[in-house]
Specification:
This protein is of the alpha+beta class. The protein folds into two domains: 204 residues, Regulatory protein AraC (Jelly Rolls); 54 residues. It has a seven-stranded antiparallel beta sheet. A five-stranded antiparallel beta sheet has the order 2-5-10-7-8. A hairpin with a 2-residue loop joins strand 7 and strand 8. The radius of gyration is 22 Å and the shape is globular. The chain starts with a strand and ends with a helix.
Length: 326
């Protein structure tokens, strides 16, 4: 992930620098902020490329952007942008549609037409995941997508909630992803976007079956990762949360060479392994780490860990402590 920040820029030049960053990352905008904010402005962003999808995780003090007809005539890359708010509140206006949106909500807008967007000044800093992609990549009619401009897709219910969970997880873990990870996630990210927008249009039948399946799997994995510490996270619970049958859930995982319970167990063991290797948690008892990730039986956890990694949890922790000491 490439990082860009105002931190190394002189205080009086930071907002002008951020204006240049916006133009290079996305499209040229008019940027505005309150004078008292401009004097102390701070912002930073991490940028990753998911194939044709550019993902930017931006943290910023309040400001507003205006995409004007003059700027559109200067540069029109024919892309769409979709935002998912991670922290704070924001507002977008396009095609006479003005929408406030909050954490987890999704908003689509088209830089080929004038619009305005701003972080509300109530929060000292907001965080936004912004996805930029060629409009030609979506298998949905342009006239239909235009109906979604600046329309809030709620992140609290239905397909919007499942898509939101995936994108919020993406924002949380972007800094951990290698180039090979982002390449593998490129298709999934597009599939999730397509499914969310098609559902908002009530046009699910226009989405190819493999796209719906891939998007559903991405959402299921995100849901599982969000709930790994819950002992009640079972295949039945996962199926119920996604309004599918348990049989269909098992079939989805079987097509990828996994079982549902096995995939959940592997993710829990990965989290335990990470915690056992973390020097900040060296004083935490092994059984407490296991319980944090829903292993309620210490003997069962110890055996599962040994089967996965060839060492007992205690041996693994001691080995990592020796490596750090060397």
């Amino acid at each position: 992930m490439d990082m860009v920040s105002t931190a190394e820029v002189a205080a009086g030049e930071r907002f002008a620098f951020w204006r240049e960053v916006n133009a290079k990352l996305w499209v040229p905008y008019e940027l505005r902020c309150a004078p008292q904010v401009e004097d102390a402005f701070q912002a930073h962003a991490g940028v990753s490329e998911f194939g044709a999808v550019q993902a930017t995780l931006m943290t910023s003090m309040p400001y507003a952007v205006h995409r004007t007809p003059k700027l559109i005539r200067q540069a029109d890359p024919e892309v769409l942008k979709l935002s998912c708010l991670v922290r704070g509140e924001a507002m977008v206006t396009q095609d006479r549609q003005c929408t406030d949106f909050g954490v987890g909500d999704l908003i689509l807008y088209d830089p080929s037409r004038p619009y305005q967007a701003e972080f509300t000044p109530d929060a000292p800093a907001s965080q936004l995941l912004l996805l930029r992609f060629p409009r030609s990549l979506l298998p949905l009619p342009s006239r239909d997508l235009r109906r979604l401009s600046a329309v809030r897709i709620p992140g609290s219910r239905g397909v919007g909630a499942l898509s939101s969970q995936f994108l919020l997880q993406l924002a949380l873990r972007m800094h951990e992803l290698s180039p090979s990870d982002t390449a593998r996630l490129s298709t999934l990210t597009l599939d999730v976007l397509t499914t969310a927008l098609a559902d908002a249009l009530d046009a699910g039948s226009e989405v190819p079956p493999h796209t719906r399946r891939n998007a559903l799997m991405a959402q299921i994995r995100s849901f599982i990762r969000d709930n790994l510490g819950d002992p009640a996270l079972t295949p039945d619970a996962v199926a119920a949360a996604h309004h599918i049958s348990l049989r269909y859930l098992h079939r989805l995982f079987q097509q990828e060479g996994h079982t549902v319970a096995g995939w959940i167990r592997e993710r829990r063991l990965e989290q335990c392994r990470r915690d056992l290797a973390d020097p900040r948690l060296a004083a935490r008892p092994i059984h407490a780490i296991a319980a944090r990730w829903a292993f309620t039986s210490p003997p069962h956890f110890s055996q599962a860990f040994r089967n996965a990694y060839g060492l007992s949890p205690r041996q693994f922790r001691q080995q990592y402590a020796r490596v750090r000491a060397d």
